[in-house]
Amino acid sequence: MNSIIVLSVLGLANLFLGFLRSNRLLLPVAMLILLVALGVNYLDWNTGPLSFFSGMLVVDNFSVAFTGIVVVTALLLLPFSQKYVRDGEPNLAEYYSLLLFSLVGAIMLVSYNHLLMLFLGIEILSVAMYVLAGSDKRNLRSNEAALKYFLMGSFFTGVLLFGVALIYGATGTFELSQISAAVQNPAPGFESLTPMLYIGMLIMLVGIGFKVSAAPFHFWTPDVYEGTPTFFAAFMSTVVKTAGFAAFLKLLVQAFPAANAQGVWLPTLTAMCVLTLLIGNVGAVTQTSVKRMLAYSSISHAGYLLIALVAFNGQLYGASANGIMFYSLAYSVATVSAFGVLKLVADARMREDYDGLNGLAKTNPLLAFALTVSMLSLAGIPLTGGFFGKFFIFSAAVENGYIGLVVFAVVMSMVSIYYYLRPIIAMYMRPAEDETTATPVPVGPFQSATLLLLALLTVVLGVLPGLVAGML
Amino acid sequence: MLTVLLLLWPVAAALLLHFFKGRAARVPALGAALVELALAAYAAFTFNTNNAGQFAYDLNWIPSAGIRFAVGMDGLSLLLVLLTAVLVPIILLSAFRRNFENESVFYALVLFMQTGLIGVFTAQDAFLFYFMWEVALIPIYFLAGVWGGVTRARVTFKFFLYTIIGSLFMLAGFVYLYFQTGPSADGLSAHNSALTSFYNLNLPVDTQLWVFWLIFAAFAVKMPIFPFHTWQPDTYTEAPAPATMLLSGIMLKMGIYGCMRWLIPVVPLGTDYWQNLVLILAIIGIIYGAIIAIRQQDVKRLIAYSSLSHVGLMIAGVFSLTQMGMQGAAIQMLAHGVNVVGMFFIADAIERRTGTRNIADLGGLTRKAPVLTVCFLVLLLGTVALPLTNGFVGEFLLLAGVYQFNAWMGAVAGVTIILGAVYLLRMFQRVMLGPDSSFTESFTDLTGAELALLVPLIVLVFWIGLFPNTFLHLSEGSVLGILNEVVNR
């Protein structure tokens, strides 16, 4: 809760820096704000569930952990915002503030206890992202991405709201635990409304499924990622996804754990999961642009996270939640690093295809190393956090008897090795083609340090997973 | 604690190497490898052969999942740790002969791989074993992929995909077994992945039948056994010589060791059921590898196929499930490691001088390079398994083991010695004897540094050949232990 206050208030204050025309200050100030938010968030650890706004928001270890992940992700991402906007860009302060505000939405998503808060969280998160997707105003692609994201996004938010309304109609409440009770034992007179409840529930799955880009509601992802400035695309595929999955898990665990509801959403979610894995991985294979490959890869990772939801075991503090938390963290760290490198390379070389990476190991060993570590992590190779992320999720699923699903997911991650190796092959085994690929990409010392830190984090997660796993 | 030191020292050294650039990294890299060798030698001298697991270290790694960082060495592990520790400095020395770009990174990767290899040979926890298994793969992928030949990107990609898919099957098998185990000792987790828990599972036969293939998939690709070998000749040929030495000298032993430690005692009934099939595949590999080797024109490819053939015999010996077969495999792992590294080094030395590996282009090296000829001949005869050399002891025991299991299989497998003599002596004749060619006109003999590298290998050829008991004694306890696990089920 404190982190929400910090981010909103200081985010507003950050806006005023724009008036001072002190663009140089923006990045350090934004990072400072995030550090403060991280600090106050840590103070909430193990203080037990605290309710706010008559129980509409609940801060517990689950929400603190996920808040920590999204804030840390944003913190690690910020160094790559440098040089994103051309010098003399007048709206720079607004972009930073929108980023901070969208984090507020993300934090609401991981700590809601009331469907209204879920809706508000999604809206706060999304509206900021709509604007940021179009922030490269002179670029048609960016405009296209913003429009696409906005149209589709607002449509699916409407769908989500429709689901919320149906659930309210069937249960008479917005509060998660009360919904859960009403699903199990409908109040007198409400028994005949159960089908409406189920429809509302499924419609909500669609709405959230869109936000986390689960198939078949993933269509926007590659196009929007491609047009959105890389920096914000990274934000979309990490913070938005992490918060979305935390919200997803909360909804299923706290509102619909009853066996009768599970009988409806479990097959639906399983089907979505299989489809997402298939489309994400097979789609990524055929891409020629690294950015689009990362977009499809982000779809495929939504598929792996859906396995954790399917393998859910009825509580917020179990293998499933731990799996999602560890996976989100490992995935976010690796993705930030991948997008970060891609952004630096694309800025210098003006291209985003695989060949644009040729010879990078010679010109920029550090960038090549960072991207390699992140690719290996995304592919789930041991020694990186991605391996243990997959390991925890898959073993939670095996433990609960979803062996077929895990076999399918393992086959899909074998496919993923193909496209995650392609950047590595380009960087290390192909020579530079022309002059632009033979000149080193300029990298600031701060960005180098961040990339090293990200690689280090990935390896630490891959060697000492016990530091984070089992926290929840 | 000593095991942990053996594990951490190479990786620490690899990190420190980044402070050296280019050629300056040579001395520290070699020094680090020699320190590792000294540590391994110390372990060997203080090793108590009457006792099974030693130098054990056990740390709670992932408490919530019951996964432990448990390492330790018995005789078999120690043998392979020794092999790794002896070969890595030699491989590093052989790399000094070449001029690489980014030398320090190259040596750092070799040392990093050493950690993975030693981890594989000492892990006492299934997930730690899998972890180390992949830790060994990543550096070799880059060693072969970055510094390799023209088609390296395609070839190493195939290699990486093959091995990682194989090891994912193994991981799946381990996960399945993990969920069959009882709670961890500290009670924090419902399951644990200790080696001993896997040994005590006593799964029903029909489960073991398929779990066997899950685990065997990884080993089958790594060794490799026919028909999972298609990555091997290309990778051996395309990789730079030091990487080929790592692959053939040490890495393929990971598969054989894995079978002995993590497959046969874990699923003894499954092994019993598939024993004949594996032996037949192994023997097909022996014959197939040898016949293709006869037809090879490329020295490196020839050695690659000969390696395939020799590994087939080791697999057959292991799966004969006899004491002789397993002991033979244990000592042959050492012998093969020594011989194949030496052979690849000589092939590389010839290639560096003449610029060709094509047998048809070579000839008449004996007159110009008598020292090289002698070294080559000794290693070659070791590979052919001439008595008094290291190959003889291993192959004799292996064949005796296979014969004990099935006389016909023993007879067919014995052809390996004849065919081996055919292709190796044929190569020796074409390369070393005969008339000069335009490529060999200005051939020079081995330099002092090269000789210094080959002498330890040649000493080992005779040492293992004349006093095999030094080594057989070490592995005997472990082999008996493994066979006990099988017999008791």
From TrEMBL, chain A:
Topology within the bilayer: Multi-pass membrane protein
Answer yes or no on keyword Oxidoreductase.
no
Give a single Pfam family match.
Proton_antipo_M
InterPro entries listed in its UniProt record: NADH-Q_OxRdtase_suN/2, ND/Mrp_TM
Name the catalysed reactions.
a quinone + NADH + 5 H(+)(in) = a quinol + NAD(+) + 4 H(+)(out)
Indicate yes or no for the key word Cell membrane: yes
Q: Which residues cross the membrane?
A: 25-42, 62-80, 92-110, 116-134, 146-168, 196-219, 231-252, 264-286, 293-312, 324-345, 366-389, 401-421, 451-471
Where in or outside the cell? Cell membrane; Endomembrane system; Membrane
Q: Give every NADH:quinone oxidoreductase/Mrp antiporter transmembrane domain span.
A: 113-414
Record keywords, A-Z: Cell membrane, Membrane, NAD, Quinone, Translocase, Transmembrane, Transmembrane helix, Transport
EC assignment: the record states: 7.1.1.-
Coarse class of the protein's main subcellular location: membrane
Q: Which family is this protein grouped under?
A: Belongs to the complex I subunit 2 family.
What is this protein's function? Answer: NDH-1 shuttles electrons from NADH, via FMN and iron-sulfur (Fe-S) centers, to quinones in the respiratory chain. The immediate electron acceptor for the enzyme in this species is believed to be a menaquinone. Couples the redox reaction to proton translocation (for every two electrons transferred, four hydrogen ions are translocated across the cytoplasmic membrane), and thus conserves the redox energy in a proton gradient.
Quaternary arrangement and interactors, per the entry? NDH-1 is composed of 14 different subunits. Subunits NuoA, H, J, K, L, M, N constitute the membrane sector of the complex.
The name on file for this protein is NADH-quinone oxidoreductase subunit N
From TrEMBL, chain B:
Q: Which InterPro entries match?
A: NADH_Q_OxRdtase_chainM/4 (IPR010227), NADH_UbQ_OxRdtase (IPR003918), ND/Mrp_TM (IPR001750)
The keyword Signal appears for this protein: no
The NADH:quinone oxidoreductase/Mrp antiporter transmembrane domain covers which part of the protein?
Answer: 123-416
Keyword Transmembrane helix in the entry? The reply is: yes
Alphabetically list the UniProt keywords. Answer: Membrane, Transmembrane, Transmembrane helix
Coiled coil location: none
Question: Which membrane topology describes this protein?
Answer: Multi-pass membrane protein
Q: Membrane-crossing residues?
A: 69-93, 105-121, 127-147, 159-179, 210-231, 243-264, 276-295, 302-323, 329-350, 371-393, 405-425, 446-466
Top-level taxonomic group: Bacteria
Q: Where in the cell is it found?
A: Endomembrane system; Membrane
PANTHER family, per the entry: NADH-UBIQUINONE OXIDOREDUCTASE CHAIN 4
Family membership, please give it: Belongs to the complex I subunit 4 family.
Q: What is this protein called?
A: NADH-quinone oxidoreductase subunit M
Q: Which organism is it from?
A: Hymenobacter guriensis
Species lineage: Bacteria, Pseudomonadati, Bacteroidota, Cytophagia, Cytophagales
